[in-house]
Amino acid sequence: MEFKELLAAFAAKYGIKGLDGADDVVELDVEGIRLELLNDSQSRSIVACAEIGHPPPDSNGAFGALMLQANFLLCATEGSTLCQNPETGAYALVRPFPLALADVESLASGLESLVNQTENWRKVLSGLREAEAVQSTAPEASDSHQEMLSSGFFHV
């Protein structure tokens, strides 16, 4: 199935308007999470992308370390890859769907997983921001928050 055919079948099955555009990039809002679906003609895949957000500037690389650990064997991402958008600096989840293997059901299942993982990773990022805010407003608590970061408090 081709990009446009798969999206048309997906839109028809789930009653979604607006996925029949002529572009090789379409946007889909699922429960307030914006997914970008891109036609990667070189790899013959649909690539789905969802932004997680920007980490706090003083996180000492804690979120980046978590991303690398989660990407190991895709153990904490359900098949998606955590990455950083080189243009915006925002962190995102990306998941490819090879067109040769994709059908409406597998696309729906994969997008549902991507949405769930995006929600989970946004919570992790929010927790990191909260810990940083507490650390910056209560210097006497900085040691305990650093222990939380290094002990895997934010581990997914």
Question: Can you walk through the features of this model?
Answer:
The chain is an alpha+beta fold and 156 residues long. The protein has one domain: Yope Regulator, Chain: A. The protein contains 4 helices and 5 strands. Helix 1 packs across helix 3 and helix 3 runs antiparallel to helix 4.
What topology does this entry show?
Blueprint: H1 3-14, E1 25-30, E2 33-40, E3 45-53, H2 62-71, E4 81-84, E5 91-98, H3 104-137, H4 142-150
Antiparallel strand pairs: 1-2, 2-3, 3-5, 4-5
Biggest sheet statistics: 5 strands, antiparallel
End-to-end separation in angstroms reads 35 Å
Element string (H = helix, E = strand)? HEEEHEEHH
Mean of residue pLDDT? 83
Which outline best applies? elongated
Radius of gyration: 18 Å
* Sequence stretches where pLDDT stays below 50 over 5 or more residues: none
CATH class: Alpha Beta
Number of helices: 4
CATH level 3 topology: Yope Regulator, Chain: A
How many runs of DSSP E, i.e. beta strands?
A: 5
> What's the number of structural domains?
1
Helix fraction?
40-55%
Q: Architecture, CATH level 2?
A: 2-Layer Sandwich
| Strand percentage | 15-25%
Largest sheet, spatial ordering of strands: 1-2-3-5-4
List keywords for this structure.
Yope Regulator, Chain: A; 4 helices; 5 strands
Summarize the structure.
By secondary structure, the protein is an alpha+beta fold. It is 42% helix and 22% strand.
